[in-house]
Amino acid sequence: MAGNSGPGEQQNSGFLYLYALAISGAAVAYIPFLTVILPAQVAMLAGGDALSTLAYITFAGAITASVSNILFGRLSDQHYQRRRWIAGGMAASSAMLLMIPLAKSGAMLIAMVVGWQICLNMMLAPLAAWAGDTVPDSQKGRLGGMLALAPAVGGIAAVLATWRSAAASEYGHWMAAILVIIMVGPLVIFGRPAAMPQLTCDPANAATPPAMPSDQIVPQSRTAVQYMWLARLLVQISEAALFAFLLLWFRSQDAHFSDRDIAVIFAVAATASVGIALAVGRWSDRTGRAIFPLALCAALAAAGLLIMAIQAGAMAAIAGYLIFGVATRVFLALHSAQTLRVLTDPRNRGRDLGLFNLTNTIPSMIMPWLIVALVPQFGFAALLWLLAGLSLAACLLLAAMPQR
Predict the structure, then answer these.
(1) Residue 222: CB partners within 8 Å, gap ≥ 6?
(2) Does any domain span residue 197?
(3) 144-181, pLDDT tens digit by residue?
């Protein structure tokens, strides 16, 4: 049911802007915490065992996020009560975030992160599904571009969280919690989307199937869903490997890198991706070429990783990461929107997006142990070569994706 929007059927810009703000607020809920605040807190608590402790926390958090995202996606499918679940998750996750600085041991920190992940996904799952209920295919490229705002805003928040150079202090937690409420709250309170019954009706009961442009991906195709899922998984493995361990990798290049330096680099990559994603998203709406930009971004991500693997010096390391960071952020933003093209059954939209969310969480379960086993013996370069190969495989997979 890819052609689910006819001429003139457009979602109002006011709702789209509020949705983009809320998605950015959701990113603020986890990007500063997972990239700079949590690693710094782990370093203070665990000392020499920081790498393994962070691996345990990442693994436990990923399992929790996987299960809870599917669960809350399914619960929000019931009568489409997305707004209530978003509001509850926003409040609960913000409260849990403020409790994390109270952790006095690694085990206590793991337990708190697990609780926070449950609450966070109570907000994230229905928020993602709401876009499927409200944004027609003719605006999905624009939606993807707007989704690129999220990591940019999250990266800026990470910089603010380290402003006083004490990333694990309560300042960073308080800042993130307040920003989440300020940014997600307006959508919950004021979001009034135009009705899109063609997006929320049972496709089995549709009187006539809508027309589909000849150059669009095949809807409801099991193969198309599998290709989209696997391609995202491959790119996310690369992204997840550097997401949690970026601080440690940069310090392996230059011991003088601070958590604030890493936050600035992360924010630059995220911010640069916004304009590119918006332009490419609008181009894909005009041309109907939803997949080509994804394949190109995967190829560029592989190129950035190769530069990181063979670099000599801090500046080359930064340049390679910026290429990789921009390419992956554009890829993930556009992919999130275009996934709604193939997941069209409104009865299970939240649940199905939860299954797609496994591409975000499975890498976090695998990569910490692979890094612990690989990096100490062979160095980060071997890891980067492996990740480059996975990104290139995603490019080839998307290039071979069945289209109509």
Answers:
(1) none
(2) no
(3) 999 888 878 887 787 777 665 544 455 778 888 999 99
